[in-house]
Amino acid sequence: MLVYGACGVSLVLGLLFIFVWAPHPWGWEGFDHYHDLALDIARGRPFPTMEVPWGYAYFLAAFYRVFGDRPWIPLTIQAALNSTVPLLVFACARTWLDKPTAVLAALLTGLFSFNTVYASTQSSDAVCTWLFMSAVLAFTIARDSDGTRWFALVGLLTGLAAQFRPNLILIPPLLGLYASIERRTRRRLAQAAVLIVCAGAALAPWVIRNYRLTGMVVPTSVHAGVQLWYGTLQTGPYLHSRAYNPRSVFEAPVFDYTSLERVPIVVQGLITCEDQPTSVSLSYRLDDEATERRLTPVRIDGRRYTFEIPAPGRKAVIYYYFVSGWPAGLDRAAQITPPAGARAPFVYFVSPDHLADLDVHGDLLDVFDAVRLARHSAWGEPVPFADKLRSAGIAGAQEAVVVLMRPLLKEKAKHLVSNVEHDAADMRINFSDGSSMTIPREWHGSISELTLTQGIASTLMTTKLSLKALEDPESRKAVASHWVCGQIEDVSVNQVFYRREPHMMRRYVTLAVDNIRHDPPGFVLASAYRAVRLFMIQGTSDRFTAQQFAQSGRVYAAAMSVSIIYLTLFVIGVVMAWQRGGSGLVLPLLLIASLPVTLAPVLTNMRYSVTVQPLMFMFTAIAIMAFARRWRRFVNPSHELRE
Predict the structure, then answer these.
(1) Separation between Cα atoms, residue 303 and residue 347, nearest integer Å
(2) 208 within a domain of the structure (yes/no)
(3) Integer Cα distance of 337 and 267 in angstroms
(4) Overall domain count for the chain
(5) What is the dihedral sign for C-alpha 390, 396, 398, 400?
(6) Taking Cα atoms as reference points, which of 584, 592, 604, 425 lies closest to residue 529?
(7) Which of 388, 448, 608, 614 is deepest in the core (most CB within 10 A)?
(8) 612/159 Cα distance (integer angstroms)
(9) Which whole number is the average pLDDT over 576-602?
(10) Higher confidence at residue 469 or residue 327?
(11) 540-565 b/e with 16+ CB inside 10 Å = b?
(12) Which candidate, 462, 8, 518, places its Cα nearest to that of 252?
């Protein structure tokens, strides 16, 4: 009865948090935009991202499709699912613990689980935890019954759970490996294989969809790349907040480029004229080709035109421009965007070199040119494409800065550089807003080897201009006289999600590896800290570090105290269980340990640990029961004698 009572308390708390008062600031719609994603799916639109897996969005969409935009309905269902977790905990704990301790673990789950808090908002945590604990229970039954069907169910459940929480992708192989080592027979090895195959089957629709869109195998989401990069920014003096790490400026790329070489390049543009053009085409050529090719749109959505340049399959520089034709009665000639057309086209790069100077033919004026001009001034190094720069009226680093920033700051650009100083080790360009760019004497051509601070320096890093447009008077004349309405506006390349997000995953991983290379010991220490930090709530009044809301200071302080108590009791319980020869508890410990192993290198917080919190309550129950027995013996020593 106590276990069912714990389930009832969990349900009452969940409904209270949904309909009366919630101890979080997010409201029903949550913080990961699942509400909007689910509404789109319910309306028949395709899933528009790879940043989050499909699981929870489709869970919500099923209810929206039947009941309409009523978030309280799926929230009530997930609160009901969450209320069964104490029963799942009890059933699992009976495999390893005595009945009173298992009952206490269920009570702790019903009364104190953080999943009950997340069940009142649209986040994937509560449903994911239910799937995870159902999989753990199914695994215990599979081991005891030696039933292959149960192993298949474990695979399906763990595969689905990974579509709610991507870091759980390692749980199926972990359980398969554990099962095959625990009983080394051919039958058990086959059952482990069934588990993994069924997990793969649960993942297959998402993997196939992602492969068709990108040509890449993406089993869950592409979000791990940015999370890893964030983790590498939170090291050393920036351990508690990446927002203040100066290396965060490198998130923005210097050039417009993609690292996806083997898929078509998607180019889009918009025409805003009231009149409709008779035709719109895209002319392009690669840097090793002399002949231009012309493409017609693959899709026209209203006034937006989409083109696909065939995959280059290698590093390449792409030169392209648009040509729009107009009805003869309008007395308008064909319009070209950019106005100079082939003389000064748009430039786009295809390269996996995320931090290098991609402008290998000197088509653009960019920060790398400013750096090389500065190095020439300080240390006499040669300047690539010096003739092109001189033709554009650029003789030194200060002139390059002025020309680059003039479109943004107009006449103020003349006074941007306050002073330049250098010695044998490095050179520092100071700007009028207090920002600076430091160039090391020993430089290998990577943008991340520079030190740029926020302001003019970081803006300079992402600014570029066409050298041909600067040096060619006819190009400038064309720009001055072009018919604005006939131009293609809002030009974008590979900004559809199935191009942008996989590319950014690769970029973030490269940035992360670069940060780790910059400070390996700092990253190791930060990861060790996060392995513990994962199990504690640690709020702050800094709005760049943690979300601020009414009474957030008190809420964070209380939550931190509670989470520390949880963690302390868990550790004590683990020690006590191990001292008693609790080798049977290896499996729940492995499942708990899998979280810090996979998440410690990345940016993380305690929310990611709520999936295994029910398992942790088992060890908390061991500690509390041990303390209770010792207290009874202290209060009534004769009780110990009777025992």
Answers:
(1) 23
(2) no
(3) 13
(4) 2
(5) positive
(6) 604
(7) 614
(8) 16
(9) 89
(10) 469
(11) eeeeebbeeeeebeebbeebeeebee
(12) 462
CA 241 to chain centre: 16
Other CB atoms closer than 10 Å to residue 636's CB: what's the count?
Answer: 11
Does a cis peptide bond (omega within 30 degrees of 0) precede residue 338? yes
Domain boundary among 463, 486, 521: 463
State the DSSP code for 286.
Answer: E
Residue type, 473: P
CA distance 252 to 239: 22
542 plus 414 within the same structural domain: no
| Residues above pLDDT 90, as percent of the chain | 79
501 and 635 co-located in one domain: yes
Residue 125 class from Cβ within 10 Å (0-12 exposed, 13-18 middle, 19+ buried)?
buried
Whether 435 and 511 share a structural domain: no
Domain match, 540 and 641 both = yes
Helix (H) / strand (E) element for 296: namely none
> Do 440 and 502 share a structural domain?
no
HSE toward the beta carbon, residue 316, CA cutoff 13 A: 20
Residue-level pLDDT at 480: 43
Is position 452 within any domain? Answer: yes
Mean pLDDT of the chain: 92
Distance separating alpha carbons of residues 566 and 592, to the nearest angstrom: 14
Strand partners, 438: 428, 451
Classify residue 291 as exposed, middle or buried by CB count within 10 Å of its CB (0-12, 13-18, 19+). exposed
Residues 393 and 515 in one domain: no
Q: What is the pLDDT of residues 615-635, one digit of tens each?
A: 999 999 999 999 988 888 877
Nearest to 217 by CA among 230, 200, 198, 197: 200
Same domain, 246 and 377: no
- Domain boundary among the residues 440, 463, 486 is at 463
Residues 459 and 553 in one domain: no
Residues 6+ apart with CB under 8 A from 35: 28, 29, 60, 71, 122
Classify residue 543: in a domain, yes or no: yes
**Residue the block writes with tokens 């997990």:** 199
Closest residue by Cα to residue 450 from 242, 182, 247, 243: 247
Per the structure, the complete domain to which residue 501 belongs is given by 223-250+497-643
119 in a structural domain: no
pTM equals 0.92
Residue 294's Cβ-count burial label (10 Å; 0-12, 13-18, 19+) is exposed
- Do the bridges between strand 265-270 and strand 304-309 make them parallel or antiparallel, or are there none, so unpaired? antiparallel
Paired strand residues for 306? 268, 299
What angle (nearest 5°) sits at the alpha carbon of residue 101, between those of residues 100 and 105?
A: 120
